[in-house]
Specification:
- The protein is α+β, with helices and mostly antiparallel strands.
- It contains 10 helices and 25 strands.
- It folds into 4 domains: 132 residues, no CATH class; 218 residues, P-loop containing nucleotide triphosphate hydrolases (Rossmann fold); 79 residues, Translation factors (Elongation Factor Tu (Ef-tu), domain 3, Beta Barrel); 106 residues, Elongation Factor Tu (Ef-tu), domain 3.
- Helix content is 15%, strand content 27%.
- Strand 21 and strand 22 form a beta hairpin.
- The protein is globular, with a radius of gyration of 23 Å.
- The chain starts with 72 loop residues before the first helix and ends with a strand.
- The N terminus is likely disordered.
- The structure holds guanosine-5'-triphosphate and magnesium ion.
- The site of magnesium ion has 6 residues, from helix 3.
- Magnesium ion binds next to helix 3.
Length: 625
């Protein structure tokens, strides 16, 4: 079992709805927070269903933009240096933290690759916080503000990269994730080039436990022909035998016995389907609070998030209350870099709802202010729609007569019509390994974050730098000879044993590999923590597929939330709602990039005792090798 996967805690069954509790302080206003994210966990054993792949990464921006399909053919033939321009930046870390020890002051040199990535503009501010201008630049998020602030050059700058101009935009890359948990029976077919010319889009389903994420995912697999009627009838019979008759649709995604017995998703389920225009990878995240780390993994691979809320009496309320996963998931998916959120108001068929427009509006009006606070602009980043995962109404076909008041598009046509994503197809090949298993060879699962790769190509697994050769490739379980950024893939490699691969390692181009280090500087925003944070504290870092303990070695400076100015003195501690530049250290070498170079590989989440405490972005790798 990979280290990301969490075994169900003894009591996970019991605390379902009243999840963790939390602070009084509540979630701070994240409207300006733009993203940070990471980690992932998936699993492998699967059943047979749509084999698909999983992937990790990148949050392509939903903004209309250049089309992805210009592959860097050079990569397949001669993995030479690709689109990156190296620049060297000298940074003075002139301050160290008093609070705690360590800090090496020496100036550090760091290489920055400017790959052609696209940024996406971030989100929005609540009406109360209009765009700010710092040093003549309009900033859209705290990250921008903090970055820009460095230019003022007064005092002794405490820190890190001076040139963090960073726009929070992400570049779109990534895509499809091969699934570690194959879901659907699919006829194997080998295609010559890439899987399909269609655009690949990774969609993560998030939301409170039992909201209906797996049921909706399973229903979509059925409606799009990925699960046949006989299989569904079999599930129906078997579910009935377990007195879980209404859960049979979720069995398309919840493939292991534990999930089916308890009716709770544990690992991110995967599936895929195609429309005329697009190829969608479904990432069905667990809703239970005990499996938030797994959910973060799914979110880190998503291009688009779908927040499922139950309209059933009492269920919306439980999920949305403080400590419920409706809030936490929405925040995490935003910090993961997802720009566009669809809210499916589910279970509209329930006898306590009966497709009541009042209930729908109540939920919409209740959620909107929070989602806006988190950073989703209701005007362009948010879309609400009613549905029933159980009956399928509102998913492929319109809701029809049951809710004549809803005249908008149904779900699948809506996501099919979203603007094309921007992918980093010309960068060096990089695929964070989300999962792995052994099947006549070592099979790695992940989402291609950047570049492309072909069958037969020589690659390297970082940070150990093990050379491997690509023996076989699948894009969402369809065997192919080439994959590109954004696809969820499985890759069989020669040259390494499965036991020597760890989740969070990165399969990459040996001529232009991902960076790795043990010590790095980062900008963090403390979201929810009732105490003060001093150097010496440890956190669980979620960065791409990595879940790793890190120690806060030094507090370098505070960053003013409004002006972006950095403090001239080193803080002794930081607390909720503050932004700071700090130094972290891990015991193991971990793969990462700076946020500026590669947003999706440079954003992270910090958790402690089962709660998300802070989000951050990597500014500088100190002992990069
Ligand atoms: N009436 C009704 N029940 C639904 C609908 N969607 C889901 N359910 C029921 O809600 C329960 C939970 O469904 P799941 O799909 O497992 O929920 P989930 O969000 O995947 O739950 P976790 O994976 O544990 O987070 C099951 O009993 C479903 O039958 C719906 O549209 N209408
Ligand atoms: Mg589920």
């Amino acid at each position: 079992m990979s280290k990301t996967q969490q075994a169900p805690p003894e009591s996970w069954d019991m605390d379902t709805n009243n999840a963790n509790q939390t602070s009084q302080g509540g979630t701070p206003d994240l409207s300006s927070v733009n993203s940070a994210l990471t980690g992932l966990s998936l699993n492998v054993n699967a059943q047979m269903f749509v084999p698909n792949v999983n992937a990790r990464s990148f949050v392509p921006s939903m903004a209309p933009g250049p089309s992805p399909t210009s592959h860097n053919s050079a990569v397949c033939e001669a993995p030479a240096v690709s689109a990156t321009t190296a620049t060297s930046i000298q940074n003075d870390i002139s301050q160290t933290n008093n609070c705690n020890a360590t800090t090496g002051d020496a100036a550090q040199a760091m290489h920055v690759d400017n790959s052609g990535r696209v940024s996406s503009a971030s989100s929005e501010k609540s009406e109360k916080s209009p765009k700010r201008t710092i040093a003549g630049k309009t900033v859209e998020s705290w990250e921008d503000a903090a970055d820009n602030s460095s230019s003022t050059g007064r005092g002794t700058p405490a820190t890190t990269p001076e040139d963090e101009d960073t726009s929070l935009d992400t570049d779109g890359t990534g895509q499809h994730v091969p699934s570690s948990k194959p879901r659907t029976k699919t006829k194997p077919k080998v295609e010559e080039a890439t899987t399909t010319e269609k655009e690949h889009v990774n969609v993560v389903f998030i939301g409170h436990v039992d909201a209906g994420k797996s049921t909706i995912s399973g229903q979509m697999m059925f409606l799009t022909g990925m699960v046949d009627k006989r299989t569904l009838e079999k599930y129906e019979r078997e579910a009935k035998d377990l007195n879980r008759e209404t859960w049979y649709l979720s069995w398309c995604m919840d493939t292991n016995q534990e999930e089916r017995d308890k009716g709770k998703t544990v690992e991110v389920g995967r599936g895929f389907f195609e429309t005329e225009k697009k190829h969608f990878t479904i990432l069905d995240a667990p809703g239970h609070k005990s499996f938030v780390p797994n959910m973060i993994g799914g979110a880190s691979q998503a291009d688009l998030a779908v927040l499922v809320v139950s309209a059933r009496k009492g269920e919306f309320e439980t999920g949305f209350e403080r400590g419920g996963q409706t809030r936490e998931h929405a925040m995490l998916v935003k910090t993961a870099g997802v720009k566009h959120l669809v809210v499916l108001v589910n279970k509209m068929d329930d006898p306590t709802v009966k497709w009541d427009i009042e209930r729908y509006n109540y939920i919409k009006e209740g959620l909107t202010p929070y989602l806006k606070k988190v950073g989703f602009n209701p005007a362009k980043d948010l879309k609400f729609m009613p549905c029933s995962g159980y009956t399928g109404a509102g998913l492929l076909e319109s809701v029809g007569e049951v809710a004549p008041w809803y005249t908008g598009q149904s779900f699948i046509p809506y996501i099919d019509d979203l603007p094309e994503l921007i992918r980093n197809v010309n960068g060096p090949f990089m695929m964070p390994i989300v999962d792995k298993f052994s099947d006549m060879g070592t099979i790695l699962i992940g989402k291609v974050e950047s570049g492309e790769c072909c069958k037969g190509q020589s690659l390297s697994i970082y940070p150990n730098r093990t050379e491997v050769k690509v023996d076989q490739l699948w894009s969402d379980d369809i065997e192919v000879t080439k994959v590109v950024s954004g696809e969820n893939i499985k890759v069989k490699v020669k040259g390494i044993e499965e036991a020597d691969v760890t989740q969070g390692f990165v399969l990459c181009d040996p001529n232009n590999p991902i960076k790795s280090c043990k010590t790095f500087d980062a900008q963090v925003v403390v979201l929810d923590y009732q105490s003060i944070i001093c150097a010496g504290k440890t956190f669980v870092l979620h960065l791409q597929a990595i879940i790793e303990e890190v120690t806060l070695k030094a507090l370098i400076c505070l960053v003013d939330k409004k002006t972006g100015d950095k403090s001239k003195t080193r803080p002794r501690f930081i607390k909720q709602d503050q932004i700071a530049i700090v130094r972290f250290q891990s015991d193991d070498v971990i793969c990462m990039e700076t946020f500026k170079d590669h947003p999706q590989l440079g954003r992270f989440t910090l958790r402690d005792e089962g709660k998300t405490i802070a989000i951050g972005k990597v500014l500088k790798l100190i002992d990069s090798n």
